[in-house]
Amino acid sequence: MGVTAKANPWKYPSRNSGLMGGHQQAHRNFNLILPDTIMNADNETLKAKAASIWDWLKRWLEPTHLAALRPQLTFQTGVLAGFALLASVLLGMTNCSTEGAIQQRLAEDLQHSLAEVVPPEMHDNDMLQDIRTIPSAGYNIAADNTTVYIAKKAGQVTAVCFKLTAPDGYSGAINMIMGIDRNGSLLGVRVLSHKETPGLGDKIEVAKSDWILNFVGRSLENLTPAQWAVKKDGGVFDQFAGATITPRKSVQAIYRGLQLFKAHQAELLQD
User: Fold this and answer.
1) Is 181 in a helix, a strand, or coil?
2) Euclidean distance between CA atoms 189 and 266, whole angstroms
3) Per residue in 39-82, pLDDT tens?
4) CA 121 centroid distance within chain
5) Positive or negative CA dihedral for 61, 65, 69, 70?
6) Measured between alpha carbons, how far apart are the two ends of the chain, in Å?
7) Domain range spanning residue 65?
8) Are residues 85 and 166 in the same domain?
């Protein structure tokens, strides 16, 4: 008596298998979706791998192949695994096709932030391309190394800009960006993100109050260390009614940012 071999649910079905039955619509849908996604991917190697997987799925899903597998217990497992694989491929292709757009949007957001703290008339270079990295582990701004964006006019450094974080805000980290001219005076500070209390701590946002604008022109030279504090602590900066911690920690972080600049001022001003 001959032995009938069980079909392997993962075996490539023949390319010559015909399409029939209710699975034609599934094939039609996949044909509309996946090839376009593959062609939108940027990486040629990934395109080739995805195309190979897509070819395998098309043949695996052919009705004649599925009909042979249906009586087997492994059929449902194979179908589920096939759709899981397809979902993974689609997610990977979507990520590749949108990565460039996401990076472009992030660059645009950063460019806008830079323009808020470094006046455009102060530079004629692309600050996103003119960067340096300095160590900042000892300044409690939530970064071991800090990327500094350099502003130049006619080849001379006129200002610098970098992100910093007050890690100990009332409700969590307060992420900021600050611009400093070559002499160490603040050109501007903006809050990028925070979790402070709405209606109280969120007054650090320029859209909610002008509190953050009071840092313009301040420096380590025109304020003593004791003055770099909120008025409740003997300094010159206002606190908020019902929310002292938020402005206190913001002032302290900005002061540390100025100290970071001063420590690396000579190297940052090199043309």
Assistant:
1) strand
2) 22
3) 455 567 777 777 887 787 778 777 787 777 666 656 667 667 76
4) 28
5) positive
6) 88
7) 21-103
8) no
- Structure tokens given for 12: 């490539």
> What's the pLDDT tens digit per position in 165-197?
999 999 999 999 999 999 999 999 999 999 999
Model pTM above 0.70: no
> Does 108 reside within a domain?
no
Q: Is residue 8 part of a domain?
A: no
Tracing tokens 């925070």 back to the chain, one arrives at: 194
Q: Which are the contacts of 37, defined by CB distance < 8 A and separation ≥ 6?
A: 50, 90, 93, 94, 97
The whole-angstrom separation of Cα 97 and Cα 124 is 33
Exposed, middle or buried, 187 (CB in 10 Å: 0-12/13-18/19+)? buried
Q: Is 110 domain-assigned?
A: no
Length of the chain: 271
Residues 50 and 148 reside in one and the same domain: no
DSSP state, residue 172: S
Identity of residue 253: A
Does some domain include residue 158? yes
